[in-house]
Specification:
Number of domains of chain A: 2
Structural class of chain A: alpha+beta
CATH architecture of the largest domain in chain A: Up-down Bundle
Shape of chain A: globular
Number of helices of chain A: 9
Strand order of the largest sheet of chain A: 2-1-3-4
Oligomer: homodimer
Order of helices and strands of chain A: EHEHEEHHHHHHH
Family (chains A, B): Belongs to the GST superfamily. Zeta family.
Organism (chains A, B): Microcebus murinus (Gray mouse lemur)
Helix content of chain A: 40-55%
InterPro entries (chains A, B): Glutathione-S-Trfase_C-like, Glutathione-S-Trfase_C_sf, Glutathione_S-Trfase, Glutathione_S-Trfase_N, GST_C, GST_Zeta, GST_Zeta_C, GST_Zeta_N
Largest sheet of chain A: 4 strands, mixed
CATH topology of the largest domain in chain A: Glutathione S-transferase Yfyf (Class Pi), Chain A, domain 2
Distance between the termini of chain A: 28 Å
Largest interface: A-B, 45 and 45 residues
Cofactor (chains A, B): glutathione
Domain GST N-terminal (chains A, B): 4-87
């Protein structure tokens, strides 16, 4: 392993890992990937070695510049401050507020309620309904917000951190069979973003740890 | 109501509202408060008027500089960018990453799992155990992280956004009767912070909408 290269601890299907993979791709940052399988061996995130790296026992975590950062948005903000080009936060503070509001809505208001550990707790028979409720409730709000902030992307016409949160969350919505018809703005932006190379190379279906049957 | 004064939509007991009240107090920003009672009338956050302001139907929301921002951390980051003194994020990007990681751990990894709307869904008989699990699981990680980042406060010796998240979360832990003995670092920092005026004037027991029987 090359000294000094950032190491991303990632799981192909983790929507939070995908956010960071998009950021790394957009900013052209070369990195090593260390896959952490969240279901194999009872969950590799529970190993002593990984817990020492990220006590939250979650992916992603990024080793970079001599530190290890957990929490996808904290990682993206750090990348933005230390590798500012191309920017993922607009220059105008009001637009930055919109980007962070949308990012937090997804990262704090939707994803945590439908992640693996919560779904385990609600029990197999309730998982689908639980996840669908969390996502539709968040998307109802998001669709309304985007109607006033969006241009080509979530906030205006520049790809931002909000877009890095949107696409992986829409993928989760599709996995949980959420009807996306009531969300034309979300759907349109998602489609536009998926055409960009950074969103494609980072896609769950194209990762080193993607199982053969899910590759595309 | 004075023109131009920020308006904070807040609920005395909401831990996310408390985060923002601390930020406003630390930065000495004068504001009007509009109480939104999350339980009265079936929840005032569900009113048409409030939904137009914040489609997520959550407090806090801050009307400021002609915009309305939802999501507590997005609000705090906006205040930090537009009213930078005293700062709530350290100057060093690595320390800023620690502050944001801790803030996101609480705001994305703990609070959303024990908030009012989720507890309604898990049913009254499971609420206490559910909330306790979410908090202890997060605090186990947080205690370990703080052991390497903390000085007097969560990250070094300066009050930061992480501290604004910590104190309200500890208050929630106490409400849900979580045993704090295994968390000496969390407990020590919480106690130190509660001695500061900004944490006292913003405290849930001293808000305009605090019911008489909970006042202190």
């Amino acid at each position: 392993m090359q000294v000094g290269k950032p190491i991303l601890y990632s799981y192909f299907r983790s929507s939070c890992s995908w956010r960071v993979r998009i950021a790394l791709a957009l900013k052209g940052i070369d990195y090593e990937m260390m896959p952490i399988n969240l279901v194999k061996d009872g969950g590799q995130q529970f190993s002593k070695e990984f817990q020492a790296l990220n006590p939250m026992k979650q992916v992603p975590a990024l080793k970079i510049d001599g530190i290890t950062i957990g929490q996808s948005l904290a990682i993206i903000e750090y990348l933005e401050e230390t590798r500012p080009t191309p920017r993922l936060l607009p220059q105008d503070p009001k637009k930055r507020a919109s980007v962070r509001m949308i990012s937090d809505l997804i990262a704090g208001g939707i994803q945590p309620l439908q992640n693996l550990s919560v779904l385990k707790q609600v029990g197999q028979e309730n998982q689908l309904t639980w996840a669908q409720n969390a996502i539709t409730s968040g998307f109802n709000a998001l669709e309304r917000i985007l109607q006033s902030t969006a241009g080509r992307y979530c906030v205006g016409d520049e790809v931002s951190m909000a877009d890095l949160c949107l696409v992986p969350q829409v993928a989760n919505a599709e996995r949980f069979k959420v009807d996306l018809t009531p969300y034309p703005t979300i759907s349109r932006i998602n489609k536009t973003l998926l055409a960009l190379e950074a969103f494609q190379v980072s896609h769950p279906c194209r990762q080193p740890d993607t199982p053969a049957e899910l590759r595309a």
